[in-house]
What does this fold into?
Amino acid sequence: MSERIEQRAPGSEGEEDQIVPSPSPVPEPPERKARSSRRGESVFRFLASGSGVLVVAAVALIGLFLLIQAVPSLMANNANFFTSPEFSTGDENNLSFGIRDLFLVTVFSSVFALVLAMPVALGVALFLTNYAPRQLSRPFAYVVDLLAAVPSIIYGLWGILVLAPAIEPIARWLNTDLGWIFLFRTGNLPVLSGTIFTGGVVLAVMILPIITAVSREVFAQTPRFQIEAAKALGATRWEVIRMATLPYGRSGYIAGSMLGLGRALGETIAVLIVIRASTSPMTFSLFDGGYTFASLIASAASEFSQPLPTGAYISAGLVLFVLTFVVNALARVIAGGKVNG
Amino acid sequence: MAKRIDLKDVDIYYGAFHAVQNVNLTVIPRSVTAFIGPSGCGKSTVLRTLNRMHEEIAGARVEGEILLDGENIYDRGTDAVAVRRTIGMVFQMPNPFPTMSVRDNVVAGLKLQGVRDKKKLDEVAEASLRGANLWKEVKDRLDKPGGGLSGGQQQRLCIARAIAVQPDVLLMDEPCSALDPISTLAIEDLIADLKKQYTIVIVTHNMQQAARVSDQTGFFNLEATGKPGHLVEIDDTEKIFSNPTEQATEDYISGRFG
It folds into this structure.
């Protein structure tokens, strides 16, 4: 790496001299300056590309680590890894674990959170960029960003102690009156609080800031000439949003939502606290309980001593890793490189 | 349809800044009125007060009267949105809605006015595109995005969009300054056609263009940077360019300054 830079440096000498012609009376100082700036150039290039390589290597190594640790346990697994709802690793010689329920609880809680957060985030972002008076818009945006700074353990405590009892009547109403929809029928828990429903609401609050922040940035960049085009046709404020802001910002909004989804999928401690464990399998209801990938691994972390049982949890982690990777990649594709948050 | 505009003692402010001072002029229906003058003289500002677009800048306000066929568009009960629906505007940079199809771009204004009849919209789209001399070039790509056209085509698309609502007045803010000479010629020919039906006000940096397309020309000037701009004189284009009343106009059009 450094060799290549070494070789390139003399080659670029001639070019640089042409670009920066030194005035003939004082030839000495500019030349020295050029040489030192060349050295600075190669050092900086090395540092910058080095950090870039480091990040890629870190991600690749994490993936590799997960894979290597997971394979022996997967070989020793007696249950179908993808379809078994049980996850028992107590007996090292009789591992029997599957990710069916982990996957379902993870996706159900995250997608439900996304369904709740997306419209609210859209409303907040449009309010901040189009409706709020300038003096209010800045502090309000700070408050929304502050939501992201609250530690997730606090969200967990708040979720189970305050939110869960508060929204239980809503859950009860949904269960009683709309129970014929499979999402709202009685799940595998004896109660209606501490369910995927409760966890989803907590997750929605947690991912609201990222979706709002990304959408707000993109909406605020709507080109002025497009806004003027709509206004000159006699568009009202809402019509300007519909004709100019939303078409321009749609991809950013969706990408921000995908980033939020990625966060929800990986959220650990709040979910562990809020969503109750259940002994029976997931029934595709929002009033089910259970573990997500992340909360299961966290709950078992204190018992990671034997390699084979540990490997079972690592294989679950690997699936989560791939899942968030896919969601984030999707966000990039949709945004077309517009998002950097 | 084509309406007359009278400006009476119009003063324009941006906050404390006095941008344009005491403008009195009349725009005659079915003719082209051009505003010329050096940068910063307020000609675009005056144009943007005619459909209340200048209000988009915080702190902007107008004193005096701007009458559209005798009705003050700044009356208390008059909504800026309503004013803009009857006064079309074409901007310096072509600004079609990039993701909307060519057809939807043209009828965007009609849709805002609540027209939903598909057949009617299609008819208006075709008539407006023909009116903007663009129909032949885009008739096979009406459903493609408007952002895919060339710069000159985009500007004619914007003109089609503006005339689709049959506006009382058509305002053009340096409509050719971002275009190549061929496209400029196409737009100038189009202006000559459009003035049979519409009242047109055009701001231009290009004095030859003003001479070519307009019937009357107003010359704006400012005494110094920071001072308000004002209308030096407005008269038949032929007279302005051959024998203007004011010395300042003579100096400007003969290229002595500006």
